[in-house]
Each structure stands twice: as structure tokens, then as C-alpha cells.
Amino acid sequence: MRAPIGDFDDVRPAPDCLDLLTPPVAEAVRAWTGPVPADQILYVDTDPAIADTAVFVEHHGPGLLDASANCVVVAGRRGEATTLAACLVKSANRVDVNGVVRKHLGARKASFAPMDTATGDTGMEYGGITPVGLPADWALLVDAAVVDTPWVLIGSGRRRGKIIMPGKAFAQLPNAVVLEGLGLPTT
């Protein structure tokens, strides 16, 4: 099987390799429903030593930078209440935490969640957090540019391996909210 983007040696439908995913990601793939079929969620095996975006793109194809997205966990606070959410933006962008995220969460203050909170609450590895399989009570804020991308490369829940899926599929994930301007240019 060949990946629709990038240059990968090992490409398989994610439902055929659930054992390579973290438990929450595997369960989400197993329970997948909606207009995008589960066999369009692809798992590609990758070396965790080159998982960081710049090195990864250099190794697997320069076109991947525009076709990849990062998922980050944010914490919105208002008084004593903290709301955790995930944000998905294209890899070349940064999340508008103090604007779009703070406003959408109705928070007085928003910031990136501490690493131990992000990994502990998701059951995923740092550097591999993915929007597939997030906790059921979290909002998933998705930049509209991600949804408009034909195929998107994201984390798999681990530093080893990635998932490729149609951009439109992110809008069908539980608690997904598609927002314009969530991702800001890094320059």
C-alpha cells in the first residue's frame, strides 16, 4: 500500500494494526463511524528519532509540511475551574491560545497544559498526541485550514508512527469545533 502523501515504507489501514496504537487511539479507530470510512485512516511506521517536524519532513518529503498538523493540549482557566481541550493546527502554524482558544473556552486565561497533564489525561506520549481518541469530555478545536487539506499527517498517540487521514474527517471527531483563525503563521 502507498500513502497518499509523503514517502513511507510501511503503510497500513489503522484498523489492521490497532496493537501499534495507544489504547485510547486504538479504541477510537475500532469504534469509528461517519462519512469517512475507517480504512481511510492510515498508519505509517516512522522512526521516533526523527519525529520532530523539521527532521521528519526532510526525511519523508518536503510536501509534508503543508500536509501535516500538530495537536496540542491547552488549559483554560476561569476562577477555580480549569477546562482542558485539544487544538489541531497545521504544523507551520502556532495555536492562537490567547485569542481564539481563550475566547472559545470562555476562559480568563489560557495556556498550554503541563506535559504530565497532557500525557496523563490522554494516555498518549508527548510528541505523539493526536486528536483521535481524546478524552470524551474535551473540546477539540480544529483550524479550518486542516479540514480543507485533502490528506493530513498527525501523531498516532506514540512518538513512533503517524496517522494519515482525510482533512474533512477531523470535523467528524467527537466534540470537534472547526474554527477560522485558530492557527496563526509562525512568522
Automatic annotation (TrEMBL):
Q: Which residues form the YbaK/aminoacyl-tRNA synthetase-associated domain?
A: 66-169
One family from Pfam that matches here is: tRNA_edit
According to UniProt, the name of this protein is: YbaK/aminoacyl-tRNA synthetase-associated domain-containing protein
**Any one GO molecular-function label of the UniProt entry:** aminoacyl-tRNA deacylase activity
Please tell me the species this chain comes from: Streptomyces filamentosus
